[in-house]
Write a structure and sequence with these properties.
It is a single chain. This protein folds into 2 domains: 177 residues, P-loop containing nucleotide triphosphate hydrolases (Rossmann fold, 3-Layer(aba) Sandwich), CATH 3.40.50.300; 225 residues, no CATH class. It contains 19 helices and 12 strands. It has a 6-stranded mixed sheet, with helices on both faces. The protein has a 4-stranded antiparallel sheet with strand order 7-12-10-11. Strands 8-9 form a two-stranded antiparallel ribbon. It is elongated. The chain starts with 12 loop residues before the first strand and ends with a helix. Bound molecules: guanosine-5'-triphosphate (GTP) and magnesium ion. The site of magnesium ion has 6 residues, from helix 1. Guanosine-5'-triphosphate binds next to helix 1.
Length: 460
C-alpha cells in the first residue's frame, strides 16, 4: 500500500465508498485509481470482505484516501438492532449510537461486515453511496441510507449502471431527494471518461467546502494528465501516418512489379500499425482484460482484421470495389507513384492519356519519368484512410472507458467514418516527402501538418 504523504495544513480527505453489496464499489475505485489490479470484483454478492485503503495523488501529493468497504446485506435487520440498542443505552447523538453498537460488536456476529462499514463511515469525511439503479426501490435501501446518515457525514449518492436505464435513474434520483440528498452523481464505469471523474470531484467540492482548494488541485492535476495522455496518443497516430504515407520504394524492374515487393510493403504496413496499436494500449495502460471488455477487435496484440482485407475497408465505410477500379497499379493496398502523383489515387494517368494534349501536358513530367522508368511503389489512399480511421476509433475507445467494466457496450456503434477536411491534401503532402518518414523532421511544414492531424484527433 502506498504511503500517505501530505502537508499538515492540507489533510488528506477520507472517502468511504459504501453501499449495498454488488453495486460496483470496488469497480468505481479501480476506475478512479486507473488500476485494474485493485481489489476483487465479481458478479457475486459479498466480494469485498474487509476495508481496504487506496490513495489518489495529485503528483506526489496524496489527496484522497479511498476506503473500499464490504457491501450491506441485511440493512433492515441492522436498523432494527440499532433501534433496539437505542432503547437500552443512553446516547447523545446517532453517531454515538453507532459507536456504542460497534463497541458491542461481539454481540452481533451477523453484522460483522456492516460493522466494518459503520466504523469506516465514522472515521471518514464523506461517504460515496453507490447505487445500482437497475434495482427496484426497496425498503432495504432506505434503511441503508437511514443507517449511514447516523454517522453524521455528508453523503454523495452515486448512480451506477446508468447506461440504458434512464427511467429507473429518475426514480432513484427522486428517492434520494426525499432523503435530502440533493447532490448526486451519475457514473458508469463502462463509459467512464475524464469528464465523469471531474464531476465527481466537483460534487465533493460542494460537499466539503474546507477541502475545496485541495480538490481543485486534484482536478487541475488530473486534467493535465488526461490532456497529456490524449495528446501522446494522437501524436503516436500521426507518427504512424507519416511512417506509412511517406514511404516509397523505387521500382527497379522494367517489366512490371514483383509480387515479392508488394508483399514486403504490405508487411511493412502491418508491422507499423501493430507497433502503433501496442504503443497506444501502453500509453493508456490498457490490458488484455480491458481490450476484451471494450470489445476492441484485437487479438494477440494484432487487429483481428488485416488492414488489407476488403472487410476492413467495408467496416469503415470505404468502398472495397473502388480500390480495384481505381486502377491500383500494383496490387491490393499498394499504388504506383510516378513523379509526384500516385496513379490509383488520381486515376490520373489513365484519364490523362485519353484526355488530349492539354491534360497530357499537365502530366508531362510524370509521364516522362514513367517512360524513363522512375517509378515508386507507395501505400494507396484507402489503406492510409483505413489506418487513420482505425487508430482514431481506437483512441476514442481508449479515452472513454472504465477499468472495471465486466460487460461492455459497443463503443464502435458510435463511430463516425468521415475523414477530416483537408485529409487528402495532408496525404498528398506527406507522400511528397519521403525524408519525413523517420518522424524527426524539424521543418515548419512537417510540424504544421503534425499539429493539424493532432488537432483533428483531439478536437472531438
Ligand atoms: N455493466 C456494468 N457493470 C458494472 C459496472 N460497475 C460494476 N459492474 C459490475 O458489477 C459487478 C459487481 O461489481 P463490484 O465492483 O465487485 O461490486 P461491489 O459493490 O464492490 O461488490 P461487493 O464487494 O460484493 O459488495 C461486477 O461484475 C462488475 O463488473 C458498470 O458501471 N456497468
Ligand atoms: Mg467490492
Amino acid at each position: 500500500m502506498a504511503s500517505t504523504k501530505k502537508k499538515p495544513d492540507n489533510p488528506v480527505i477520507n472517502v468511504a465508498v459504501v453501499g449495498h453489496t454488488n453495486t460496483g464499489k470496488t469497480s468505481l475505485i479501480r476506475t478512479l485509481l486507473r488500476d485494474d489490479r485493485f481489489g476483487k470484483i465479481d458478479d457475486a454478492a459479498g466480494t469485498t470482505r474487509s476495508v481496504e485503503k487506496s490513495v489518489v495523488y495529485a503528483g506526489d501529493e496524496a489527496v484522497l484516501n479511498l476506503f473500499d468497504t464490504p457491501g450491506f446485506e441485511d440493512s433492515s435487520a441492522l436498523l432494527l438492532a440499532l433501534e433496539a440498542l437505542s432503547k437500552t443505552v443512553e446516547v447523545k447523538s446517532p453517531a454515538q449510537l453507532l459507536r456504542e453498537f460497534i463497541s458491542q460488536a461481539q454481540r452481533y456476529p451477523d453484522f460483522e461486515q456492516e460493522i466494518k462499514v459503520l466504523r469506516q463511515s465514522l472515521k471518514s469525511d464523506v461517504l460515496l453511496y453507490i447505487i445500482d439503479v437497475r434495482e427496484p426501490l426497496l425498503g432495504k435501501y432506505s434503511d441503508e441510507v437511514e443507517i449511514l446518515s447516523k454517522a453524521g457525514k455528508p453523503i454523495l449518492p452515486v448512480f451506477n449502471f446508468i447506461a440504458g436505464n434512464s427511467e429507473s435513474l429518475a426514480r432513484w434520483r427522486e428517492q434520494m431527494t426525499r432523503f435530502n440528498l440533493h447532490a448526486a452523481l451519475e457514473f458508469d464505469t463502462v463509459a467512464f471518461d475524464f469528464e465523469a471523474e471531474k464531476r465527481l470531484y466537483q460534487k465533493l467540492q460542494s460537499l466539503l467546502e474546507k477541502h475545496y482548494d485541495t480538490l481543485q488541485t486534484l482536478i487541475d492535476y488530473r486534467q493535465e494528465v488526461w490532456h497529456n495522455l490524449v495528446h501522446a496518443g494522437a501524436q503516436r497516430i500521426f507518427q504512424l501516418l507519416a511512417e506509412v504515407a511517406c514511404f516509397r520504394q523505387e521500382v527497379e524492374s522494367r517489366d512490371g512489379i514483383a509480387d515479392a515487393d508488394v508483399a514486403s510493403i504490405q508487411n511493412f504496413v502491418r508491422k507499423a500499425e501493430q507497433r502503433a496499436l501496442q504503443d497506444l494500449l501502453t500509453i493508456f495502460a490498457f490490458t488484455q482484460v480491458d481490450i476484451e471488455l471494450q470489445q476492441i477487435a484485437v487479438r494477440d496484440g494484432q487487429w483481428e482484421l488485416d488492414i488489407f482485407s476488403p472487410h476492413a475497408l467495408k467496416d469503415f465505410g470505404l468502398n472495397a470495389g473502388a480500390r480495384a477500379l481505381a486502377g491500383a497499379a500494383a496490387g491490393a493496398g499498394i499504388d504506383l507513384m510516378v513523379g509526384g502523383i500516385s496513379l490509383g489515387a488520381a486515376t490520373a494517368l489513365g484519364a490523362a492519356l485519353g484526355a488530349g494534349w492539354a491534360t497530357l501536358r499537365r502530366y508531362q513530367k510524370e509521364l516522362a519519368a514513367l517512360w524513363r522508368g522512375h517509378k515508386w511503389l507507395c501505400v494507396d489512399d484507402d489503406t492510409l484512410s483505413l489506418l487513420y480511421l482505425r487508430q482514431r476509433q481506437l483512441l476514442h475507445t481508449l479515452t472513454r472507458r472504465g477499468h472495471a467494466a465486466q460487460s461492455s457496450i459497443h463503443l464502435s456503434d458510435r463511430v463516425d467514418h468521415a475523414l477530416p477536411e483537408g485529409w487528402h491534401k495532408v496525404i498528398k503532402t506527406l507522400r511528397q516527402h519521403p525524408e519525413w518518414q523517420a518522424g524527426t523532421s524539424t521543418s515548419a511544414e512537417y510540424r504544421q501538418i503534425q499539429a493539424e492531424v493532432i488537432k483533428w484527433l483531439t478536437d472531438d
